Amino acid sequence: MGNSLTKADQARVLAEGKARAHRWAPQAGYVTSIVKSEEDLEQTMELIQISYGHFASHSAARSNENGAGDHELRTLKLFVIGATGRTGREVVQQALARGHRVTAFVRSPESITATNERLNIIKGEAMDEEQLFRAMQNHDAVISTLGPRKVFKPGTLLHDSALAMTHAMQRAGIKRLVVLSAAAHFPGIPNRIARFVMRDHMRDSLAMEKVVQGDSLDWTIARPPRLTQGNSIRYRSLEGAAPKMGSSLSRKAVALFMLDAVGQKKHLRKIVGIAK
Prior knowledge:
Number of strands: 13
CATH superfamily of the largest domain: NAD(P)-binding Rossmann-like Domain
Shape: globular
Distance between the termini: 25 Å
Order of helices and strands: EHEEHEHEEHEHEHHEEEEHE
């Protein structure tokens, strides 16, 4: 499989052993990835994401020159809350690979080791409206992957941060919001059991959803099932319900869904079930 990268990305992935030099067109930024087993898929998908970001940025530049743009390809400025969490890290990584500019709003900036000229890291509290307002100026969309620090302990983190976030967005003039919730809010006996076991977190999560839905923003609520650290990025989505036979989903796939929802302007003011 061939992938066209920038010269800098080409040199990096070759040095890291993630790809081989292309036989015919290395001068054009091409590298070769060979998939022999499942273990090779992760680095191949990384190459594809990097290549996509390179292509997207060039397409956006050409569209701007022509006075027209493709909303799936244009470069966006994304404000990510919860960027140090396992799903948040995937959102940041994939967004940068697509060529977007990312602001990671986090409590502990030292937790982010990634470096990129399009990544801006700002320290702040997700429940502080003023900090959020100052930091999110001039962004196209907000993505929140915020989760509770302790699932089985009562708290109002998600609800309180949703209030601060939506108020700050209104003041900053940002309309697009994609937030992470949980499939356990859908009907069904397994979900009812999950809601009981994690009732404190579920109560806070549902309160967060109500805050988001009660605002005039262009929101999307993503409800995935049990999250895994798998490498698959495939997902199925269904508005208003959980996809059948979907008991788990990788964090990589959740991140991809959230970025697709923003980039493709899909699922506006919808609750969406996603699954493997």
